[in-house]
Amino acid sequence: MTAAVDPWQKLLASWDDQQTGYLPRREERFAMMTRTIGEVIGDSFAALDLGCGPGSLSQRILAAHPAATAIAVDADPLLMELGRHALSDYADRLRWVDADLRDPRWHESLGVDSVDVVVSTTALHWLEPGVLFAVYRRVAQLLRPGGILLNGDNMPYDPGQATHERLAEAANDRAAREAFTVAGVPDWERWWAEASGNDLLASAARERTARRELADQVYGTRDGDRLTSLATHVTALTEAGFREIGTIWQNLDDRVLLAVR
After folding, report:
1. Phi and psi dihedrals of 67, rounded to 5?
2. Strand, helix or coil for residue 108
3. What is the tens place of the pLDDT at every residue in 79-138?
4. 14, 64, 173, 211: which sits with the fewest CB atoms below 10 Å from its CB?
5. Residue ranges of the alpha helices (H) in 52-102?
6. Are 124 and 118 in contact (CB under 8 A)?
Protein backbone atom coordinates (compact mmCIF):
# COMPACT_ATOMS: atom_id res chain seq x y z
CA MET A 1 0.00 0.00 0.00
CA THR A 2 1.33 3.44 -0.92
CA ALA A 3 1.68 5.79 2.02
CA ALA A 4 -0.53 8.86 1.85
CA VAL A 5 1.29 12.06 0.95
CA ASP A 6 0.94 14.81 3.54
CA PRO A 7 -0.76 17.71 1.72
CA TRP A 8 1.42 20.26 3.51
CA GLN A 9 4.57 18.45 2.51
CA LYS A 10 3.29 18.33 -1.05
CA LEU A 11 2.70 22.08 -1.02
CA LEU A 12 6.18 22.76 0.34
CA ALA A 13 7.72 20.47 -2.28
CA SER A 14 5.86 22.36 -5.00
CA TRP A 15 7.24 25.64 -3.62
CA ASP A 16 10.76 24.23 -3.69
CA ASP A 17 10.28 22.98 -7.25
CA GLN A 18 9.05 26.41 -8.36
CA GLN A 19 11.99 28.18 -6.73
CA THR A 20 14.48 25.71 -8.19
CA GLY A 21 13.09 26.49 -11.62
CA TYR A 22 14.50 29.98 -11.24
CA LEU A 23 17.57 28.85 -9.27
CA PRO A 24 18.77 25.47 -10.61
CA ARG A 25 21.65 25.35 -8.10
CA ARG A 26 19.49 26.34 -5.15
CA GLU A 27 20.30 23.21 -3.15
CA GLU A 28 24.00 23.79 -3.71
CA ARG A 29 23.55 27.32 -2.40
CA PHE A 30 21.70 26.00 0.66
CA ALA A 31 24.42 23.41 1.26
CA MET A 32 27.15 26.03 1.17
CA MET A 33 25.31 28.21 3.67
CA THR A 34 24.58 25.31 6.00
CA ARG A 35 28.14 23.98 5.85
CA THR A 36 29.65 27.43 6.41
CA ILE A 37 27.64 27.90 9.60
CA GLY A 38 28.99 24.63 10.97
CA GLU A 39 32.59 25.42 10.04
CA VAL A 40 32.59 29.00 11.37
CA ILE A 41 30.14 28.87 14.29
CA GLY A 42 29.81 25.19 15.20
CA ASP A 43 26.81 22.92 15.57
CA SER A 44 24.99 24.60 18.47
CA PHE A 45 23.72 28.09 17.67
CA ALA A 46 20.71 30.36 17.39
CA ALA A 47 19.92 31.44 13.83
CA LEU A 48 17.68 34.18 12.49
CA ASP A 49 16.17 33.59 9.03
CA LEU A 50 15.04 36.85 7.40
CA GLY A 51 12.36 36.73 4.71
CA CYS A 52 12.06 33.02 5.42
CA GLY A 53 9.03 32.23 3.23
CA PRO A 54 7.86 28.72 4.16
CA GLY A 55 11.17 28.00 5.92
CA SER A 56 13.09 26.06 3.28
CA LEU A 57 16.48 27.34 4.46
CA SER A 58 15.68 26.98 8.17
CA GLN A 59 14.57 23.42 7.47
CA ARG A 60 17.93 22.52 5.94
CA ILE A 61 19.92 24.28 8.66
CA LEU A 62 18.05 22.52 11.47
CA ALA A 63 18.28 19.15 9.73
CA ALA A 64 22.05 19.51 9.40
CA HIS A 65 22.56 20.85 12.93
CA PRO A 66 20.32 19.03 15.47
CA ALA A 67 21.49 21.22 18.39
CA ALA A 68 20.59 24.48 16.62
CA THR A 69 17.49 26.64 16.93
CA ALA A 70 16.04 29.14 14.47
CA ILE A 71 13.70 32.10 14.36
CA ALA A 72 11.97 32.42 11.00
CA VAL A 73 10.78 35.93 10.10
CA ASP A 74 8.38 36.84 7.30
CA ALA A 75 5.34 38.99 6.65
CA ASP A 76 3.52 36.67 4.24
CA PRO A 77 0.75 34.82 6.12
CA LEU A 78 0.28 32.21 3.40
CA LEU A 79 3.90 31.12 3.29
CA MET A 80 4.18 31.08 7.07
CA GLU A 81 0.99 29.03 7.39
CA LEU A 82 2.45 26.57 4.92
CA GLY A 83 5.76 26.45 6.79
CA ARG A 84 4.23 25.99 10.24
CA HIS A 85 2.36 22.89 9.09
CA ALA A 86 4.94 21.40 6.73
CA LEU A 87 7.78 21.85 9.25
CA SER A 88 5.83 20.88 12.36
CA ASP A 89 8.48 18.24 13.17
CA TYR A 90 10.82 21.13 14.02
CA ALA A 91 8.30 22.95 16.23
CA ASP A 92 10.51 22.64 19.32
CA ARG A 93 13.45 24.33 17.56
CA LEU A 94 11.81 26.61 14.98
CA ARG A 95 9.85 29.69 16.01
CA TRP A 96 7.89 31.79 13.52
CA VAL A 97 7.74 35.58 13.79
CA ASP A 98 5.28 37.62 11.76
CA ALA A 99 7.13 40.87 10.97
CA ASP A 100 7.78 43.10 7.96
CA LEU A 101 11.43 44.05 7.51
CA ARG A 102 10.32 47.41 6.14
CA ASP A 103 8.93 48.26 9.57
CA PRO A 104 11.75 49.90 11.60
CA ARG A 105 10.48 48.03 14.68
CA TRP A 106 10.50 44.55 13.11
CA HIS A 107 13.15 43.31 15.55
CA GLU A 108 10.95 43.98 18.58
CA SER A 109 8.92 40.84 17.85
CA LEU A 110 11.92 38.49 18.00
CA GLY A 111 11.94 37.96 21.74
CA VAL A 112 15.76 37.78 21.83
CA ASP A 113 18.56 40.32 22.18
CA SER A 114 21.22 38.45 20.22
CA VAL A 115 21.78 35.55 17.84
CA ASP A 116 24.81 33.72 16.47
CA VAL A 117 23.84 33.59 12.81
CA VAL A 118 21.63 35.60 10.47
CA VAL A 119 20.67 34.09 7.12
CA SER A 120 18.51 35.06 4.20
CA THR A 121 17.94 33.61 0.77
CA THR A 122 16.17 35.07 -2.28
CA ALA A 123 14.51 37.69 -0.11
CA LEU A 124 16.45 40.88 0.60
CA HIS A 125 16.35 42.02 -3.02
CA TRP A 126 12.77 43.08 -2.29
CA LEU A 127 14.05 45.88 -0.07
CA GLU A 128 14.72 49.42 -1.20
CA PRO A 129 18.38 50.41 -0.61
CA GLY A 130 17.55 52.67 2.36
CA VAL A 131 15.62 49.85 4.05
CA LEU A 132 18.40 47.37 3.30
CA PHE A 133 20.93 49.65 5.00
CA ALA A 134 18.65 49.88 8.05
CA VAL A 135 18.12 46.10 8.19
CA TYR A 136 21.86 45.43 8.04
CA ARG A 137 22.47 47.96 10.83
CA ARG A 138 19.89 46.19 12.98
CA VAL A 139 21.35 42.79 12.14
CA ALA A 140 24.78 44.02 13.24
CA GLN A 141 23.28 44.97 16.60
CA LEU A 142 21.62 41.56 16.97
CA LEU A 143 24.66 39.47 16.07
CA ARG A 144 27.10 38.60 18.80
CA PRO A 145 30.77 39.48 18.15
CA GLY A 146 32.13 36.86 15.76
CA GLY A 147 28.65 36.03 14.52
CA ILE A 148 28.02 35.83 10.80
CA LEU A 149 25.51 36.91 8.21
CA LEU A 150 24.94 34.79 5.11
CA ASN A 151 22.84 36.19 2.28
CA GLY A 152 22.12 34.02 -0.76
CA ASP A 153 20.50 35.96 -3.58
CA ASN A 154 20.77 37.13 -7.16
CA MET A 155 23.04 40.18 -7.09
CA PRO A 156 23.57 41.83 -10.48
CA TYR A 157 27.01 42.68 -11.78
CA ASP A 158 28.28 46.21 -11.50
CA PRO A 159 27.84 48.69 -14.39
CA GLY A 160 30.36 48.02 -17.13
CA GLN A 161 30.01 44.24 -16.92
CA ALA A 162 27.39 43.90 -19.63
CA THR A 163 28.82 40.63 -20.97
CA HIS A 164 28.69 39.01 -17.53
CA GLU A 165 25.15 40.26 -17.01
CA ARG A 166 24.05 38.97 -20.40
CA LEU A 167 25.45 35.52 -19.63
CA ALA A 168 23.62 35.47 -16.29
CA GLU A 169 20.32 36.49 -17.89
CA ALA A 170 20.71 33.84 -20.59
CA ALA A 171 21.42 31.13 -18.01
CA ASN A 172 18.44 32.19 -15.90
CA ASP A 173 16.15 32.23 -18.93
CA ARG A 174 17.38 28.79 -20.01
CA ALA A 175 16.79 27.29 -16.55
CA ALA A 176 13.29 28.77 -16.38
CA ARG A 177 12.39 27.48 -19.83
CA GLU A 178 13.59 23.95 -18.99
CA ALA A 179 11.65 23.89 -15.72
CA PHE A 180 8.43 25.67 -16.60
CA THR A 181 7.99 24.93 -20.30
CA VAL A 182 9.70 21.57 -20.74
CA ALA A 183 9.20 19.94 -17.31
CA GLY A 184 5.86 21.64 -16.58
CA VAL A 185 6.79 22.91 -13.11
CA PRO A 186 4.43 25.72 -12.01
CA ASP A 187 6.11 29.11 -12.36
CA TRP A 188 5.72 31.98 -9.85
CA GLU A 189 2.32 33.17 -11.09
CA ARG A 190 0.88 29.68 -11.49
CA TRP A 191 2.16 28.54 -8.10
CA TRP A 192 0.53 31.47 -6.33
CA ALA A 193 -2.72 31.01 -8.20
CA GLU A 194 -2.87 27.33 -7.25
CA ALA A 195 -1.80 27.91 -3.64
CA SER A 196 -4.32 30.71 -3.15
CA GLY A 197 -7.05 28.44 -4.48
CA ASN A 198 -6.13 25.56 -2.17
CA ASP A 199 -8.69 25.06 0.62
CA LEU A 200 -5.90 24.53 3.15
CA LEU A 201 -4.61 28.04 2.48
CA ALA A 202 -7.83 29.88 1.70
CA SER A 203 -7.95 31.91 4.91
CA ALA A 204 -4.26 32.77 4.72
CA ALA A 205 -4.66 33.77 1.07
CA ARG A 206 -7.38 36.27 1.98
CA GLU A 207 -5.21 37.67 4.75
CA ARG A 208 -2.31 37.95 2.33
CA THR A 209 -4.36 39.99 -0.13
CA ALA A 210 -5.55 42.36 2.59
CA ARG A 211 -2.06 42.82 3.98
CA ARG A 212 -0.49 43.51 0.61
CA GLU A 213 -3.08 46.17 -0.15
CA LEU A 214 -2.39 47.86 3.18
CA ALA A 215 1.39 47.53 2.80
CA ASP A 216 1.25 49.09 -0.66
CA GLN A 217 -0.42 52.12 0.89
CA VAL A 218 2.16 52.37 3.67
CA TYR A 219 5.38 51.42 1.87
CA GLY A 220 4.54 51.70 -1.82
CA THR A 221 4.30 48.92 -4.38
CA ARG A 222 7.31 46.63 -4.53
CA ASP A 223 9.09 46.01 -7.83
CA GLY A 224 9.79 42.29 -7.99
CA ASP A 225 12.10 42.72 -11.00
CA ARG A 226 14.44 45.07 -9.15
CA LEU A 227 17.54 43.39 -7.76
CA THR A 228 20.07 44.93 -5.39
CA SER A 229 23.62 44.98 -6.72
CA LEU A 230 26.55 43.31 -5.01
CA ALA A 231 28.17 46.73 -4.53
CA THR A 232 25.12 48.00 -2.65
CA HIS A 233 25.13 45.01 -0.31
CA VAL A 234 28.86 45.39 0.39
CA THR A 235 28.50 49.12 1.02
CA ALA A 236 25.54 48.58 3.37
CA LEU A 237 27.34 45.85 5.32
CA THR A 238 30.50 47.94 5.62
CA GLU A 239 28.49 50.91 6.87
CA ALA A 240 26.82 48.64 9.44
CA GLY A 241 30.20 47.63 10.87
CA PHE A 242 30.71 44.18 9.37
CA ARG A 243 34.17 42.90 8.42
CA GLU A 244 35.49 40.20 6.08
CA ILE A 245 32.71 40.83 3.60
CA GLY A 246 32.94 38.67 0.51
CA THR A 247 31.37 36.14 -1.85
CA ILE A 248 31.97 32.53 -0.77
CA TRP A 249 29.87 30.83 -3.47
CA GLN A 250 28.77 32.00 -6.90
CA ASN A 251 26.96 30.81 -10.01
CA LEU A 252 27.05 33.85 -12.31
CA ASP A 253 24.91 36.49 -10.52
CA ASP A 254 23.60 33.99 -7.95
CA ARG A 255 25.83 34.45 -4.90
CA VAL A 256 26.27 33.71 -1.24
CA LEU A 257 27.68 36.71 0.60
CA LEU A 258 29.39 36.17 3.96
CA ALA A 259 29.92 38.99 6.45
CA VAL A 260 31.54 38.58 9.88
CA ARG A 261 30.49 40.77 12.77
Report:
1. -95, 0
2. helix
3. 999 999 999 999 999 999 999 999 999 999 999 999 999 999 999 988 999 999 999 999
4. 173
5. 56-64, 77-86
6. no
